[in-house]
Structures are given as C-alpha cells and as structure tokens.
Amino acid sequence: MCQIIQYEQELKTAKDTATQYQGLYTSHVIDDSIRRAASPDEVMNQELIVQLLRPKTQIRPITNEEGKPTDKQAPMVEFDDIDENTGQPITTLRTPADAIKRMKELPSQYGGLFRANVISGVGQGAATGGVTSGTGKVDISKIAKDQALYRKYRKENPALLGLKPR
Predict the structure, then answer these.
(1) Are the C-beta atoms of 57 and 77 separated by less than 8 Å?
(2) Cα separation of 105 and 94, whole Å?
(3) Which of 39, 119, 135, 144 has a C-alpha 20 to 30 A away from that of 110?
(4) With 0-12 CB in 10 A as exposed, 13-18 as middle and 19+ as buried, what is 154?
(5) In the predicted structure, residue 141 carries a pLDDT above the cut 50
(6) Burial of 34 (0-12, 13-18, 19+ CB in 10 A)
(7) Burial class (CB in 10 A: 0-12, 13-18, 19+), 31
(8) Residue 56 is part of which domain span?
(9) Do residue 103 and residue 41 come from a single domain?
(10) 3-state secondary structure of 4
(11) Number of domains in the chain
(12) What is the pLDDT of residues 92-108, one digit of tens each?
C-alpha cells in the first residue's frame, strides 16, 4: 500500500513538472514569434507589441486546405479587427506577423506603435514637406532660388528661417 501512495505522489510531481515546463515552452514560443514578427526597424517598442498581443495568442493546430487540423501547431492571435466593408468590430484569427501587419493598417488604433506613422517631434526635423535640414529650420540652399517660397515662409512661419515673428 505504501508503494502505491509513493507512486501516486511521484506521478503527481511528474505531471506538475510537465505542466510547468509545457507552460514555459508555450510562453516562450508565443513571445518569440511575436518578437520576430515585430521588426525593430518598424516597431517603436517590441515589448509593448508583445504585451498587447500575448494575452490574445494561443498555440493552435494548423489546418490544411480542407480545414482539417494537421499534426503541427503554431501561435495564433485572436485579433480585434475592423471589417473593411462595414466598419464594424470583428475578431479574426491571424498569425503574429499578420496581426502586426494589420495593426499597421489601422493607424487610428495602433498608429503610435510604428515608426512609419510617427511625425517628428520636438528636437527633430519639422515636417514641412521635405525642405528641412533636420534641425527644424528650412534649408536655405533649397529655397534660395525661389523668392516666392522664401517670402511665404517669412510671412507664415519666420521661425523656420531663424527669424523672430513680427
């Protein structure tokens, strides 16, 4: 009888350990797939993307063309999306890469997370249509031949030319 109790305790310990390591492995696979999909060249903060998508991501079976599950599994995000035709909120099932791609397509919700959607701020080049030198002032060499453009800047925004407002 004593051996049965000991065996049951060892079995419970082994099951608990397996569950713990399965959770760690699953968490690692999910986090890693989100980080790989969130390219540092495009995303302002990878960890923020992981925090947004991690709670909505699970390891799910991959289905074939007929919709039947295969023996492979992959992380999938239950993404809070917007129907392009109706504008109504929907939930779609996407890979982390597809979810991040869709986030970039929804700048009203996720625009501040991506470098392409952010306009330069204080201390950066001003967004004046590409005529800045990167210091927030107009590159005089580009408008030196165009007196009308110079007058426009002088009248509308003299600070870009390094002048005091009138």
Answers:
(1) yes
(2) 14
(3) 135
(4) middle
(5) yes
(6) buried
(7) middle
(8) 2-117
(9) yes
(10) helix
(11) 2
(12) 999 999 999 999 888 88
Tell me how far apart the alpha carbons of residues 43 and 100 are, in angstroms, rounded to a whole number: 9
pTM for the whole thing? 0.63
pLDDT of 144 over the 50 cut: yes
Q: How far is CA 120 from the centre of its chain?
A: 19
Classify each residue of 91-126 as buried b or exposed e, where b means 16 or more C-beta atoms within 10 Å of its C-beta.
eeebbbeebbebbeeeeeebeebbeeeeeeeeeeeb
pLDDT grade for 44, boundaries at 50, 70 and 90: confident
What is the spatial distance between Cα 65 and Cα 126, in angstroms, rounded to a whole number?
50
**Pair 6, 51 in one domain:** yes
Phi then psi dihedrals of residue 134, to 5 deg: 100, -10
| pLDDT tens by residue, 123-140 | 444 444 444 444 455 666
Spell out the residues 6+ positions from residue 54 whose beta carbon is closer than 8 angstroms to its own: 30, 31, 34
Contacts of 31 (CB under 8 A, 6+ apart): 50, 54
pLDDT the model gives residue 32: 95
| Structure confidence at residue 87 (pLDDT) | 85
Residues 133 and 111 in one domain: no
Q: How far apart are CA 96 and CA 103, in angstroms?
A: 10
Closest CA to 143 of 156, 98, 3, 107: 156
- Tell whether 64 and 39 lie within a shared domain: yes
